[in-house]
Amino acid sequence: MQQITGPKVTLAALAAIFRKEMKHHMRYPGNFVIYLLLPFLFTFLILGMGMATGGASASSYFAERTGTSNVVVYEILGSAVWMTSWVVVEDVGVVLRDEQMKGTLEQNFLAPINRITLLIGLSLADVVITSAIFFIVVGVTIAIVMPSSFFSIIPAFVALLLGLVPLFGICFLFAGFVVRFKEPYVFTQVVNLLFATLTGTYYPVTFLPYWIQLFSRLLPQTYVIADMREIMIANQTLVNLYGSIFILLALALLYPTLGYAIFKRIEKRAGVTGEFSKY
Amino acid sequence: MDPVEVTQLSKVFETKEGKFLRQSSKRVVAVDKIDFKVPKGEIFGLLGPNGAGKTTTIKMLCTLVTPSSGDAFINGFSVAKDQQRVRENLGVMLTGERTLYWKLTGQENLEYFAALYHLDPSFSKKRIKDLLSLVGLNEREGTLVENYSTGMRIRLSFAKALLNEAPVLLFDEPTASLDPQSSRLIRDLIRDLKRQGHAIILTTHNMEEADILSDRVAIIDHGKIVTLAHPVELKQKVKSSDIIEIHARNLSPQIAEALKSYSEVSKVAVSAEQGDEELLRIHVEKGKEILPRILEFLVRKQVTITKVTFIEPTLEDVFIAETGRSLRD
Q: In terms of domains, do B256 and B294 share one?
């Protein structure tokens, strides 16, 4: 039998997992369509609520509190980042449980690959999906509302990518919890709503009580959303935002390491209890 | 060293019982200090009823479940310590058809797993083609697995287990829910793999399958290996008794138990048959002499007898002789 060796082993496995995930995304296209529509629907919902409560002065109140009168871009950036984190939570956080229920998780665990390869492979597919969501949702909005700032989408995208790495780390942790405690959809709904509430998706984080802001600061999306708004609405550069970029880089190192370490502990325990075979 | 060596392998699960806030922990011994070896070119059958410990044993051998004590060695690698190397040396087919990606085609499934097993892409292309042809799926390679029949999915699962040409193969109920034609194909392929020198462990609760395929059979019950030998030797053990098989209705466990009061009766086992019929298997001395008394007793107890046969011992009878109950209990 001819086998590959060395780093090729991991690369080939990553490529295979990536291809498999992309094929699944393409063969279940309904999910992707929903991911594209939801940011717009949530934004319209927030705009409607704002106008209903603020009346004729809604725009000026908003500008006073957020520093911008560009409500649509402000809200769509929050929605787009929320949607990307939603996809990552649903995919990386829940996929192991999903595979467990399908019966394919054990087949992956029977193969001589590291578990981290499996988690990274799943994450890579999500980079493509979330990038597509971001470019389509934000690109369409910017092209219509403020075409002169269209190319600011590129540094904003860099901020998104930087935020995805620590988010994957958080989801590695969730992946372990979901396999351990089951009931993935209760879990993802709570996590997704918490993310929307805590990260300044639709309002500045400073509106939250101080002690809640402490939790917000632990979430990478808080920095991503704030940086994107600075880049696209206030014409800032990534260099000017070095403080939050540095925090994102630190979280990108810390969270995947921590998330994987806890995942490994839960996985080891699952081997003892036979948890991976339970439905 | 043999390709498979199992020494004092045990698994104890902790389970919770009782209602919320009144739960208590219970220890369930799934596998209890089992020992066996499988040399090259042997088919080793693990036979036992559901819940006997067969699947837990297989899952410990393939590193999905961590042993509580003891160890097993696959091609010299410990399942407790060298899990990655164990996986490289194993081809595993677990029970059921839901072990594949239904939204991928047969070929895509094999390509995916070939990459996870480190197969060189140029080699895997040919290997996949050969395997699809071997299991008769070469003309359906591009069809999504969701459109396969159950038999086709199980054959694809079987092909998947052969991808990495592992020296040790584990098949967990490989023909469960297969039609006779597909079952025959899988059995023929298993025999070919044995001839090629693979060490094969086969779990089944199908006695006929264990009998015709296995070079040696271990009968496992309540996590322990109760007997281990060549099927012919095992059947020889019960050959000294006559075995009467009675198909009947209205047969209660108490009536079956009462048959043991006859001094000639050594074992009695009851298992469900189709409809409301049950199958009574009785191991007796001087069967022809005692049969009229047994039938008279059953009729007196208002049991409806539909068929009576003297039969040659099977592995089921070995199981009854060793455990006092039927495999299908």
A: yes
